[in-house]
Predict the 3D structure of the following.
Amino acid sequence: MKPLLGVISLDHELDQLNELTYFRCGASVPFAGRYRLIDFILSNMMYAEIVSVGLFIRRKYRSLLDHLGDGKPWDLDRKRGGLFILPPDWNDPTDTSRGELQHFHNNLHFFRRSPGKYIVYSGSRHINMVDIREVYQQHCESEADVTVVYKQVEQLEPEHEGCIRLNVDSSNRVTGIHQEKDNHNIYMEMFVIEKELFLDMVDLCIAHGGSHFFRDVIQKGRGNLKVAAYEYKGYHAVINSVQSYYKNSMDLLKREHYLRLFGKQAVQTKIKYEAPTKYLADAKISNSLVANGCVIDGWVENSIIFRGVRIEKGARIINSIVMQKSIIEMNANIENVIMDKDVIVSQNRTLMGAPQQPFVIAKSSIL
């Protein structure tokens, strides 16, 4: 395989998870007990042996930088290549580029110095375990200019409403790109393209006032490009709202969903050396994901408990997500709640949301 260059662009990803994105960008939102949303695409790139990854970010990236570090969990702590975190740095007063294209234009040295001949572009909102090597192989065999990745979903959900849809013919050629609500072919914000073509298209798009590569180059200029489609058939979830975050998180408590995401290969994340969870005499756990480092002496049912959580005697956690180092004190009750990091729920408090509208508690709150 010719070297691939990874590009993860977060510029157009809005902070749609309300309280969960008050202090962080969406890519660094915790997920599934021990991960962050960005871990999944980074793991996919690692398994494709991509050794250079550029991350383009604009705002709220402190938490993300802390999580990524030097990229070691994804084999990106390298002397040659590695993880390149590229926040905004606009030094050219004559630059007329806008939006996502401004990132690419102002970091041409990253693209020029990287050895990869092909770019694998992705965002972070679509959780999947795509085999990028298969996408690249199909791209080369089809002799396409661009190969976009899509998922044909069985049932359309509210989180799909804002997604771009594709029309694909029997030869895997894209014949339409739009947002028709009844189309089940969901574009997964991932594509493969030759690097030199990508850079040429960036310059052309900037010259015509564009700001977003997929929309202004691939979607609007489809008639001038041969656009192929790769159908992904594995686990897929779109995280673009509090409701979609809660629903897809709780779906992982179903064995079949969990195995589809984690059963094939490991997802890499920041390593934290913590003791195993300690279950005290009154602890009762049923159908839950519990990470390491917790101390539990209460009831946990149908819930996801992240690392280092303390649940005291008499507390009850039902249908909820409790993130790192939160504390639920004695006899507190929470149900249908998403609790961000470092939250303290005082004794005898009751917090309750609804399955369709979970109650969200912002980071470091004391209730």
DSSP finds nine helices and 28 strands in the chain. The chain has two domains: 4-262, 278-361. The two ends are 54 Å apart (CA to CA).
